[in-house]
Amino acid sequence: MSFGCIIDATTSSKIPSEAIAEMSLTAQNHRILLNDGNNIPIIGLGTYSAPKITAKDACYDAMKVAIDVGYRHFDGAWIYGNEGEIGKAIQEKIADGTVKREDIYYCGKLWNTFHPPEMVRPSLEKSLKLLNFDYIDLYIIELPLAFKPGDVIYPRDENGKYLYHLTDLCATWEVECHPYFTQLKLREFCDSHGIVIVGFSPLGTCRDSLWVNTKIPPLLDDALLNSVAAKYKKTSAQVALRFQLQRNTVIIPKSFNPERIKQNFEIFDFSLTNEEIKLISALNRNERYVQLLMWKDHPEYPFNDEY
Ligand code: A2P
């Protein structure tokens, strides 16, 4: 999961909403241009895994596999508790000559308890120190839901009620994107303004019932995705990812499993037809997996808005 919002408001590519086969993208060269001249690799590795159930070094190991496979974009956050492992893996891959720092695109995130402006820079500096970087490529607001500022990361009162905080959210966006939640209206808006979307949970999440609406069936079991996958000798995950790639949407599938890390990157050697894109688009249910219902009483809870 990346709770993180992600619209990078700095992008280019005027692309119509559906069915754009970006055929020129390859495993070696898959950066897409942003409207400020920067660029972003269209596939990144998601790195959220519930800290309590994740083995130490699982993220570090996954990072090294991913860099060897060819991933250059990593979606992380201070709250995931593994920026140290991410930094260590990247530094080692720089030291052994596999990559240079400028080959890597790292996105970090400001946690809910650090929204007051004076806390932003120190929070970023904490991440830089853990990563052992002198810059990161993108820093976004993790969630448009501010909590009581301070060092308690999930602050609650004596009755267990979350302690919220009011904040200015005008620049904050939240985007989940996959075949069951295609975000057509948001995409049309972004396309018309030259904004590239980064869609989190492109595989339909890990289905942790704490924060996921598990009433929606698992995306990767979908019959259409599986039948298209069979046609191309791919998996439903690869079809879901390729669908987004052809819509010029950046995807950040999370996996710490070497086979699946590799599988999720093998999406540059086939192409969906426009008809298949249309059929997959029609799977849209306008329902989010990530609903964060435990915070639905927050005055800025974003998911009742249309987008
Ligand atoms: P794992 O880390 O064991 O591979 P999302 O990116 O939509 O949040 O989905 C992440 C979830 O999907 C994780 O539980 C991850 O588990 C699993 N996953 C990642 N890649 C694949 C794949 N190719 N096929 C099936 N499940 C996958």
State the distance separating the first and last CA atoms: 19 Å
Q: What overall geometry do the principal axes of the alpha carbons give?
A: globular
Radius of gyration: 19 Å
Oligomer: single chain
What is the makeup of the main sheet? 4 strands, parallel
Number of strands: 9
Number of helices: 8
Spatial sequence of strands, sheet with the most strands: 4-5-6-7
Associated small molecules:
adenosine-2'-5'-diphosphate
Instruction: Report the sheet-strand fraction.
Output: 5-15%
Q: H/E order of the elements?
A: EEEEHEHEHEHEHHEHH
Structural class: alpha/beta
Helix content: 25-40%
Q: Unreliable stretches, pLDDT < 50, 5 or more residues? A: 1-21
Mean model confidence by pLDDT: 89
Describe the structure.
The protein has helices at 58-69, 83-95, 117-131, 184-192, 223-232, 236-246, 258-265, 274-281, and strands spanning 7-8, 31-33, 39-41, 45-46, 73-75, 105-110, 138-141, 196-199, 250-251. The chain is of the alpha/beta class. Helix 1 links the parallel strand 4 and strand 5 (73-75). The model is unreliable at 1-21 (pLDDT under 50). Helix 1 (58-69) crosses helix 2, helix 1 (58-69) runs parallel beside helix 7 (258-265) and helix 2 crosses helix 3 (117-131). It has 8 helices and 9 strands. The strands form 3 sheets. It has a 4-stranded parallel sheet, with helices on one face. The chain is globular, with a radius of gyration of 19 Å. The structure holds adenosine-2'-5'-diphosphate.
